[in-house]
Amino acid sequence: MSVLSKEYFHNEEAAIAHLESILWGDEPICPHCGSVGNSYKIGGKSARPGLRKCGDCRKQYTVKVGTVFESSHVPLYKWLQATFLMVSSKKGISAHQLHRVLEVTYKTAWFMAHRLREAMRDGGLDVFGGEGGTVEVDETFIGHDKDIKPKYQKKGRGYAHKHKVLALVDRDTGRARSMVVDSLKATALVPILKENIAKETRVLTDEAGQYKKLGNDFAKHDFVRHGIGEYGRGEIHTNTIEGYFSIFKRGMKGVYQHCAKRHLHRYLAEYDFRYNERKITDSERSDIALRGIVGKRLTYAN
Description:
The protein has 302 residues and is α/β, with parallel strands linked by helices. 34% of the residues lie in helices and 14% in strands.
């Protein structure tokens, strides 16, 4: 039997019960006042599936209130299908593919995908490395930045016209974190690295000039010289983060093809999430993504 044959992928009440078990466990939680376990179901033909009323604040709610699913007219079981498809596709799944599979409009599929990417955003403030750990740092370029001044708007060789992405990979935990940056100068990157990497960490980079003085801010800084064809000296390499970029770029170019700068941070969150949760099953990864829907809203204006 296929995993997509499970009842909660096809039945609205089963989908609601599944999401309630993930977000609430055994006790319903009122999103309005935070009351736990003090609510009752509202039945009847006119009541929405899963509708409850809080015994404390007396407000009605469903498990979707206060999440990225709130106010959506798309059936919840289709949201669960979309979540599973996105987290189980190594390089992503396009909005056009979701539109065909879920039988919703392209506009709806596009917005669903962005809501789910928002759910995948970690938002954690924990630093990488620490206690003698090792963190690889590198940057890459993607797409075409329309905000660049006209004289730099070229589509040929070079990187001045592209979006700039900075990424970190913690070798000890196997976790990645990536972000869109406006500049690759040391004055812009070093403060970001200091916020995200513990000072007692060994940092590994390539020979780019913006990284030359990292030894002043971290326990140790080693680098490889790609310019002369050097890609590793024992443990000194950036191959781990290059592997992350390989998956990211193949997905962005082969699946999504184009991304505006204002949306790029969500695509990065999607690739970070799948990379960081790569050692578990697709179903487990889907449940983790669904736990991230709470407290996040996204409108078309965003």
